[in-house]
């Protein structure tokens, strides 16, 4: 008895994460899954690119040519993006935002290489969002007085009526959840739709799915990468304020 | 829970998934409003076209989120099948 794609386990539609091998970690059963392998591939590509870029810049010339040109363009664009939204505190975040941008971008377009995009696994996007969350709160305690933080916590009411604290707490906790779910759901929906097209149309899915790849992998992936980095920078910049340490 | 067989639960899950993606109406309206306002902004100030485009895409991508939550619920109901015993 078949229920079509509803019982996706046995049918041709396949976009799930598969375990490759399991091992015991302090008594817990831990799986190495396809996402780990895909992250490894993405990281290998990025590390290879980084080494190539490093070599190109070591023997860089005054007038850039070839590969050096490409590397300088990428770095300038990324730095410009951070500059435009963080202002004075931008130089300290060039490295982090740039790395995260390149990592998420390559993860999102990994579908073009036949991999399952690592960002279509909630275990990849949640840590990214948690790093953002940690950065937000480190900067909050670094740049604001505890009294101001408490006032923000009770914000619509005066600070001696802490009636709105639970609601503000919820909105604080919602930040990493919405950040990670946005990226995850976008990439997952693209992955699922591509899997449905390839799985259900089988022999008819030749050449024209390339257009869908351009939309789901390239366009959607790039937009979501940009949104993730932009929101991270905006949240951090909000906490830094005028940049005067307390 | 012996009264419901798996086919019934799967059918109800499919109906629930269909109802969950109705959440797509909201982002559709929101993205349309954003695009309309962006169009009128370009009409008023054609010089700022690229800035407006960036801002519009950013806003639309953020507005999309609520619809994607509904889609996520639909995926969970259809493919993870949490209601099956």
Summarize the structure.
With 246 residues, chain A is mostly helical.
Q: Provide the residue-averaged pLDDT of chain A.
A: 87
The SSE order of chain A reads: EEHHHHHHH
Main β-sheet description of chain A: 2 strands, antiparallel
Strand content of chain B: under 5%
Question: Architecture of chain B, CATH level 2?
Answer: Up-down Bundle
Class inferred from helices and paired strands of chain B? mainly alpha
Please state roughly what percent of the residues of chain A sit in beta strands, choosing from under 5%, 5-15%, 15-25%, 25-35%, 35-45% or over 45%: 5-15%
Biggest beta sheet summary of chain B: none
| Silhouette of chain A | globular
Helix content of chain A: 55-70%
Main interface pair?
A-B, 21 and 18 residues
Regions of chain A with pLDDT < 50 over 5+ consecutive residues? Answer: 1-10
What is the fold named in CATH at topology level of chain B? Answer: F1FO ATP Synthase
Shape call of chain B? rod-shaped
The beta-strand count of chain B equals 0
Q: Gap between N and C termini of chain A, in Å?
A: 68 Å
Number of domains of chain B: 1
Cα radius of gyration of chain B in angstroms: 20 Å
Cα distance spanning the termini of chain B = 9 Å
Count of the domains of chain A? 1
**Number of helical segments with 4 or more residues of chain B:** 3
Can you offer a commentary on this structure?
The complex is a heterodimer of chains A (246) and B (85). Chain A has 246 residues and is mainly alpha-helical. Chain A has one domain (61-240). Chain A is 65% helix and 5% strand. Chain A has helices at residues 34-58, 67-86, 94-108, 122-143, 146-153, 165-201, 209-240; strands at 19-25, 28-33. A two-stranded antiparallel ribbon of chain A has the order 1-2. Chain B is an all-alpha fold and 85 residues long. Helices cover 79% and strands 0% of the residues of chain B. Chain B has one domain: F1F0 ATP synthase subunit C (F1FO ATP Synthase), CATH 1.20.20.10. At the A-B interface, α6 and α7 of A face α1 and α3 of B.
